[in-house]
């Protein structure tokens, strides 16, 4: 069975929708309806780097708020994530 397509706000094209809502609340609904599986995967990679490089804890409310703001900036506002201490390979 073919997965449903959505217009992904991040990729600016039609892409495969996520299997289910991965984030809670109204923001989660927006992500499910507007962010593709591929774009979410890109965010998860960035989030992992942010957590590791900044020694964040998802148990900490301030850290979760920081990550949520970075996620909104990345997925909906087209802002790349600057990760202190990270240098892409080949540079």
From TrEMBL:
Q: Cite a single GO BP annotation.
A: cellular response to oxidative stress
Signal peptide residues are none
User: What are the protein's GO molecular function terms?
Assistant: iron ion binding
> What role does it play?
Could be a mediator in iron transactions between iron acquisition and iron-requiring processes, such as synthesis and/or repair of Fe-S clusters in biosynthetic enzymes. Necessary to maintain high levels of aconitase under oxidative stress.
NCBIfam families registered for this protein in UniProt? PRK05408.1 (NF003817)
The protein's matches in HAMAP family, at most eight in alphabetical order, are given as: Fe_traffic_YggX
Q: Which domain of life is it from?
A: Bacteria
Is this entry keyworded Iron?
yes
Cellular component terms per the entry's GO annotation: cytosol
Tell me the protein's name.
Probable Fe(2+)-trafficking protein
């Amino acid at each position: 069975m073919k997965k449903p397509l959505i217009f992904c706000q991040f990729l600016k094209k039609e892409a495969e929708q996520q299997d289910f809502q991965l984030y809670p609340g109204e923001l989660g609904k927006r992500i499910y309806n507007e962010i593709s599986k591929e774009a979410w995967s890109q965010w998860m990679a960035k989030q992992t780097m942010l957590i590791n490089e900044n020694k964040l804890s998802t148990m900490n409310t301030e850290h979760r708020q920081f990550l949520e703001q970075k996620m909104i900036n990345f997925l909906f506002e087209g802002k790349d994530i600057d990760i202190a201490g990270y240098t892409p390979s080949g540079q």
